[in-house]
């Protein structure tokens, strides 16, 4: 006797459906970008009915905003960067940023954010909001630096992760963390010293 086929929709017992939908959305937004990741595909990846996606998130835009919430707390990230002498802040910034990006649990979400920022206004707004308010404004206040200096440092780091993790241009893609830190730290230090 075969077990009855499992139907999509609400699963019996404690539900992890919302988390499963978010995980599937992160993967598909990362792989396909906002426009090409459909609610149906996300539901299929999560093993649920598309109606359940709408039940939890309402719309694709709301699902995107929930799924693309940044996977690291800016306070923790900034705490690691700001701890220590100012003369080494460029190195700490490069090392912390690269270490976060190299984490295989976090990378799909970051890649999804970057790809969506390049292709949709929703993604661009999400990334812009996070970078300006959660990171640049806090560092500018803590270090007493002009925002342009911090934006230059951020553009340096974002360019590196774009080439290393998203476009995967060699030799950047296979460069070690130490190699990249050695190249980036002096430039970042110059920006962050004002």
Automatic annotation (TrEMBL):
Tell me the superkingdom of the source.
Answer: Bacteria
The answer on whether this UniProt entry bears the keyword DNA-binding reads yes
Q: Which PROSITE patterns match?
A: HTH_TETR_2
DNA-binding region, residue range(s): 38-57
Question: What's a Pfam family in this record?
Answer: TetR_C_16
Keywords, comma-separated and alphabetical: DNA-binding
**TM spans (from-to):** none
- Record's InterPro entries? Homeodomain-like_sf, HTH-type_TetR-like_transc_reg, HTH_TetR, Tet_transcr_reg_TetR-rel_C_sf, TetR_C_16
Q: Give start and end of each HTH tetR-type domain.
A: 15-75
Name assigned to this protein:
TetR family transcriptional regulator
């Amino acid at each position: 006797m075969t077990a009855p086929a499992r139907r999509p929709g609400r699963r019996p017992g404690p539900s992890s459906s919302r988390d499963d939908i978010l995980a599937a959305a992160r993967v598909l937004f990362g792989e396909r970008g906002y426009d090409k990741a459909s609610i149906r595909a996300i539901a299929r990846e999560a093993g649920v009915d598309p109606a359940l996606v709408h039940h939890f998130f309402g719309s694709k835009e709301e699902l995107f905003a929930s799924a693309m919430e940044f996977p690291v707390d800016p306070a923790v990230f900034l705490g690691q960067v700001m701890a220590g002498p100012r003369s080494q802040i460029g190195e700490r910034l490069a090392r912390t940023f690269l270490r976060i990006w190299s984490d295989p649990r976090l990378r799909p979400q970051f890649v999804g954010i970057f790809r969506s920022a390049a292709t949709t206004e929703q993604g661009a707004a999400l990334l812009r909001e996070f970078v300006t308010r959660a990171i640049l404004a806090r560092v500018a206040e803590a270090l007493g630096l002009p925002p342009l200096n911090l934006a230059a440092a951020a553009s340096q780091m974002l360019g590196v992760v774009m080439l290393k993790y998203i476009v995967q241009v060699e030799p950047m893609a296979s460069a070690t963390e130490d190699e990249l830190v050695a190249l980036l730290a002096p430039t970042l230090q110059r920006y962050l010293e004002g």
